[in-house]
Amino acid sequence: MNSRRTRIYEGKAKILYEGPEPGTVIVHFKDDATAFNAEKKAVIEGKGVLNQRISEYLFSRLNEIGIPTHFIRSLNMREQLVREVEIIPLEVVVRNIAAGSLAKKLGLEEGHVLPRSIIEFYYKNDALGDPMVSEEHITSFGWATPMELDDMMHMAIRINDFMTGLFLGIGIKLVDFKIEFGRLFENDMMRIVLADEISPDSCRLWDTKTLDKMDKDRFRRDMGGLVEAYHEVARRLGIIQPNEQPERSKPKLVKTD
Ligand code: TMP
Question: Which of 29, 65, 207, 237 is deepest in the core (most CB within 10 A)?
Fold first, then answer.
């Protein structure tokens, strides 16, 4: 890592550095894994590289179907150059199959196919534990305008339709996922673009045949085999050659509160 770079922000799984030109940012994908608002932590060697490569692939494919994103290009296995955006403080979750917090909240069996895809919003605030919020909250508190909300929902549905098909083609069910959006300022114009990442850290991915989990639930639920599962996702997407080995496989527990 180049220590002369100016660090802008360090999050739970990524570090942001100033980019080479104004209006650009370098995103560094760490090997750190957290869950339950960082109550559970570990370093899982190889995770950052796999997430960077999977996210690069998905953002590139989404760009090709006309979804605007912050992604410019990958710089190396762990880092990408992106456009600087003003992150909208919302986590937009799209669900196709009941799992995780929805299954728990409504007493649904995990795996129950939802009558239609559901969009949920969570306010990004660690101190409050990212509470679920409604469209009314979002527009009343000014986190996004009604038009921005509309843009985000339309994009979320297109992203869901595209990714559902993409993953189904490689034997994976897209159960749910979380995305984030940012405001991109260009001259006098502002538009909403897809930002952050899309990776097995932010999706639930189940093998179509075996229903094996190929996502961060392997860490949340202490199942092990996370790097192997992310590697298999990357292999099926055609990002990684069949003989390429995961960097390291053993999760190293750093701290569990
Ligand atoms: P949930 O069932 O825990 O609400 O998670 C829904 C989806 O959002 C799941 O694919 C995991 C993802 N997610 C994140 O990316 N970050 C988070 O902080 C949380 C809680 C969920």
Answer: 29
Question: Does residue 176 have its Cβ closer than 6 Å to ligand 1?
Answer: yes
* Cα distance between residue 125 and residue 128, in whole Å: 5
For atom 8 of ligand 1, the residue with the nearest CA is 178
Determine, yes or no, domain membership for 216.
no
Q: Is the CB of 177 under 6 A from ligand 1?
A: yes
Q: What is the DSSP letter of 145?
A: -
Print the domain residue range for 191.
Answer: 86-207
- State whether the beta carbon of 34 lies less than 6 angstroms from ligand 1: no
- Is residue 213 included in any domain, yes or no? no
pLDDT per position as a tens digit, 106-163:
999 999 999 999 999 999 999 999 999 999 999 999 999 999 999 999 999 999 999 9
Do residues 96 and 75 both lie within one domain? no
d(CA 30, CA 28) in angstroms, rounded, equals 6
Q: How many domains does the chain have?
A: 2
Q: How far is the CA of 204 from the centre of ligand 1 (A)?
A: 8
What's the rounded Cα separation, in Å, for the pair 166 and 119? 20
Identify the DSSP state of 197. Answer: -
pLDDT per position as a tens digit, 55-104? 999 999 999 999 999 999 999 999 999 999 999 999 999 999 999 999 99
Same-domain status, 101 and 201: yes
Does ligand 1 come within 6 angstroms of the Cβ of 139? no
